[in-house]
Predict the structure.
Amino acid sequence: MSSVDCCPPLHDPLDEGDAVELAGALKALADPARLRLLSIIGAADAGWACACDLHEPLGRSQPTVSHHLTTLVKAGLLEREQRGKWAWFRVREERLSAVRDALSVVDPVRD
Amino acid sequence: MSSVDCCPPLHDPLDEGDAVELAGALKALADPARLRLLSIIGAADAGWACACDLHEPLGRSQPTVSHHLTTLVKAGLLEREQRGKWAWFRVREERLSAVRDALSVVDPVRD
DNA sequence: ATATCGAATTGATGACTGTCGATACCGTGA
DNA sequence: TCACGGTATCGACAGTCATCAATTCGATAT
């Protein structure tokens, strides 16, 4: 059921529209800085991480990190929460799973 | 075991090098034309498809299709075989699975 | 109010990429 | 050997993107 909300599995005749949608989600993932953000946030205590703790381990400027975080939120891969003047983020695993599920050209576990 | 040859899972502290590698594989997937190619080839009889049957359903020119096929082969997602003057392709599911496995921030099936 | 500090936005720049027309390459069959 | 046809390569162009410095926005605390 997880792939339904996001992108239909590839199994076959993927039409251009679905392909564009899935490609959009993958584009959001296809960047080293964003993968590391997901990795760092996903490994954080209680699953939540503050933006203020991300620039340094990433080795990128604050505007650049902010830009990537926005991209990931727009793609539905991160959830954002404002706490006072700090921004906190959490990985939306359901969404990540949906993308992963959609990535089955020939899924060995299915029919 | 499948993710070892390709890219380490995101689980945590993904370093820049690993992130670049995984991002590379995802970049290869993050294009509508290439997703459709995988989909079409994966659904073909016996898993093999001839390049000559791909331009038309894709609605792209022959050079463009050739370019995308090359990209997918370089990324290890397609296997190429020359038969006379025709080029045949097959989806490398192991590689696709490896990428999919690497895409787990918190893998429910593991430790 | 005002100073402070974290985060988002803006603007600019250099690099990359998807696309196609034209062309070159290379098996096959006559 | 030559013509044919499938495929790859080349050159060009338009669009996208990652990045940063400078600036603005917003919330907190004094």
